[in-house]
Amino acid sequence: MTQETRHFPETPDVVVIGAGIVGLACAWSAIRDGASVTVVDRDFEGDRTSYGNAGGIAVTESTPISVHGLYWKAMKWLCDPLGPLALDWKHLPAALPWFMEFQRAGNRTRFREISLALANLNSRVYDDIVPMFQDVGYMNHFYQRGALTVYETDEAFAADQPEWNFKRELGVRWRAMSADEVRECEPSLAHVFRKGVFLEDWAHIGDPKLLVTRLRDRVRQLGAQFVTGAVRALDPSDALVPAAVLESGVRVKGRQIVVATGAWSAELAQSIGDRVLLDSERGYNTTLPSHGVNLSREVIFAERKFVATPLDIGVRIGGAAEFAGLKAPPNYKRSDALLTLGKKFLPGINDSGAVKWMGHRPATPDSLPVIGRSPKVSSVIYAFGHGHLGLTQSATTGALIADILTERSSKIDLTPYAISRFSK
Ligand SMILES: Cc1cc2nc3c(=O)[nH]c(=O)nc-3n(C[C@H](O)[C@H](O)[C@H](O)COP(=O)(O)OP(=O)(O)OC[C@H]3O[C@@H](n4cnc5c(N)ncnc54)[C@H](O)[C@@H]3O)c2cc1C
After folding, report:
1. Ligand 1: does its nearest atom lie under 6 Å from the Cβ of 20?
2. Could you tell me which of 98, 149, 48 has the C-alpha nearest to residue 364?
3. What does CATH list as the number for 78-101+279-363?
């Protein structure tokens, strides 16, 4: 167990479990509100989902993954072993309730409700994330250059129009581009794209791992105590001072506990009787440090379901959604398949020194994060389940958790993010 020597209250106001981007953003916000904070992680330096993501500040992603009619496309994708969607059939029995709820999330009424809740979070992302970037000295790795979605066929572009129009209703700014405009916008792309959609409010960062490292250092500098250990369960038997119980048996106590353990959060919620549907939606990418192409902004390849982001550390080509649980080893053939697509659409890209990676998106079936107090133990607060948008919504989640910790009323209605939605 690692402990700092500076003066620190025996029982901190807040224990944050999980030092990914979400947990650290919660710790950062709580400290700035004047709370004493202990952060617990099983491995502060180890790889985590927040290190290897695509780096997109994807504020325009305000519709759930489960869209009407996706099931038929999904069936087709599942037939391709290295396609955009994969399921390890051994994982199916465990994941079945998740998939059933996923299907429900695509019905028209629910789709609309979820979209409004996502748009509410996304609409305040920059108000929360820019001050955090400023405070940790990250502004020179923050690129507000928009993003470009590209289409190989007019049919796919036309098929997506209802969703784009609905996004416009939600406040998303976008404009359609012709083939020539796409070429002008990103000249390194292969000349095969018939249409594009430019998303001016999207941004990207230079290196997600560097951001986590800077934020962790800043949180420590602001006075947080760091405890290394895997949390096995929560123990609320002392209502005033609940504890996080480590595998070693050590109890880390605080007046309030924030659970921000990403894709690993369901077990901790269960340990106090809260049910949640959470699965790992495993994603893959390859980072090309010597790429040799000129890309200015993130590009989303609409039909192939992958993205390319020009990070400071190289072009990162990634995507895929693989459901195989938390323990199955990575299948890096998926990174290879994505790289093959990248080479096709970014001709001449150099793959020497390529680094492959897999991470666990903490996915709820309705694409909404879990943010709010436990209905069972009011001193436990949840901040997990951000799926594809954990980087984007990190600082906003931190700000909302700070509101909850201090009993301040939040600027947005938090009901849609409550864990109790999984018990209905
Ligand atoms: C391929 C890919 C691309 C992505 N692209 C984007 C993107 O462009 N934009 C975006 O916004 N999001 C993106 N995401 C999603 C984003 O990366 C995640 O939503 C986000 O990183 C989740 O952060 P987190 O802090 O909740 O979880 P994590 O980063 O996984 O952190 C969880 C932490 O909890 C710790 N932990 C877990 N269990 C325990 C325990 N029992 N005891 C102690 N510690 C524990 C872990 O060690 C870890 O440090 C992408 C994800 C993937 C996989």
Report:
1. yes
2. 98
3. 3.30.9.10
> Can you tell me which atom of ligand 1 is nearest the CA of 393?
11
User: How far is CA 304 from its chain centroid?
Assistant: 20
Which atom in ligand 1 lies closest to the alpha carbon of residue 232? 41
Residue 214 in contact with residue 138, Cβ under 8 Å? Answer: yes
Residue 273 pLDDT more than 90? yes
Which strands sit side by side in the sheet containing 56-57, from one edge to the other? 56-57, 203-205, 142-143
Instruction: Give the C-alpha separation, 184 to 57, whole Å.
Output: 23
Indicate whether 24 pLDDT > 50: yes
Residue 5, pLDDT > 50, answer no
* Mean predicted confidence (pLDDT) in 95-121: 93
Burial class (CB in 10 A: 0-12, 13-18, 19+), 147: buried
> For atom 26 of ligand 1, which residue has the closest CA?
262
Q: What is the pLDDT of residue 6?
A: 46
* Residue with CA closest to ligand 1 atom 4: 53
Q: How many helices (H) and strands (E) does the chain have?
A: 13, 21
- Tell me the pLDDT tens digit for each residue of 323-349: 999 999 999 999 999 999 999 999 999
CB contact set of 213 (below 8 Å; sequence gap of 6+): none
- Domain spans, the chain: 1-68+106-146+201-276+364-424, 78-101+279-363
Mean pLDDT over 228-233 rounds to 98
**All residues at 6 or more sequence positions from 7 whose CB lies less than 8 Å from its CB, including other chains:** none
- Domain spanning 1-68+106-146+201-276+364-424 has what CATH number? 3.50.50.60
Rounded mean pLDDT, 217-245: 96
How remote is the C-alpha of 289 from its chain's centroid? 23
pTM reported for the whole predicted model: 0.96
List phi, psi (to 5°) of 404.
-65, -45
pLDDT of 161 higher than 80: yes
DSSP 8-state symbol, 323: E
Print burial letters for 186-195: b (CB count within 10 Å at least 16), e (below 16).
Answer: bebbeeebeb
Amino acid at 395: A
Residue 246 Cβ contacting ligand 1 at under 6 Å: no
Binned at pLDDT 50, 70 and 90, residue 47 comes out as confident
